[in-house]
């Protein structure tokens, strides 16, 4: 399972949240990366590149069953 963590700098103070809401997970890395690409565009960036002061990372929470 994967979580898309959205990071925003408020001045020099980082704030991080689950980009899709509490307890939302992705079944695999690929679907998380696709959501990251979409998020980058939704917040004003382009194709995986976030505006200054923002970033998102996919983090594995536990091993996905195959």
Structure commentary:
- This protein is of the alpha+beta class and 66 residues long.
- It has one domain (2-60).
- It has 1 helix and 3 strands.
- Strands 2-1-3 form a 3-stranded antiparallel sheet.
- The model has no long low-confidence stretch (mean pLDDT 93).
Descriptive labels:
single chain; 66 residues; alpha+beta; 1 helix; 3 strands
Residues in helix, %: 10-25%
The structural class is alpha+beta
Oligomer: single chain
Counting H and I runs of at least 4 residues, what is the number of helices? 1
Task: Tell me the overall shape.
Answer: globular
| Count of strand segments | 3
Distance between the termini: 11 Å
Low-confidence stretches: none
Instruction: Please tell me the total number of domains.
Output: 1
Provide the residue-averaged pLDDT.
Answer: 93
Order of helices and strands: EEHE
Radius of gyration: 12 Å
Biggest beta sheet attributes: 3 strands, antiparallel
Strand order of the largest sheet: 2-1-3
Please report which band the strand proportion falls in: under 5%, 5-15%, 15-25%, 25-35%, 35-45% or over 45%: 25-35%
Question: Nutshell version of this structure?
Answer:
The protein has 66 residues and is α+β, with helices and mostly antiparallel strands. It has 1 helix and 3 strands; from the N terminus they run ββαβ.
SSE topology:
Elements: E1 2-10, E2 13-18, H1 29-42, E3 54-60
Antiparallel strand pairs: 1-2, 1-3
């Amino acid at each position: 399972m994967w979580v898309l963590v959205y990071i925003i700098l408020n001045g020099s103070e980082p704030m991080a949240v689950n980009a899709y809401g509490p307890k939302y997970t992705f079944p695999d890395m690929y679907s998380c990366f696709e959501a990251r690409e979409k998020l980058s565009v939704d917040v004003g960036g382009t194709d995986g590149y976030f505006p200054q002061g923002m970033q998102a990372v996919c983090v594995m929470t536990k091993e996905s069953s195959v």
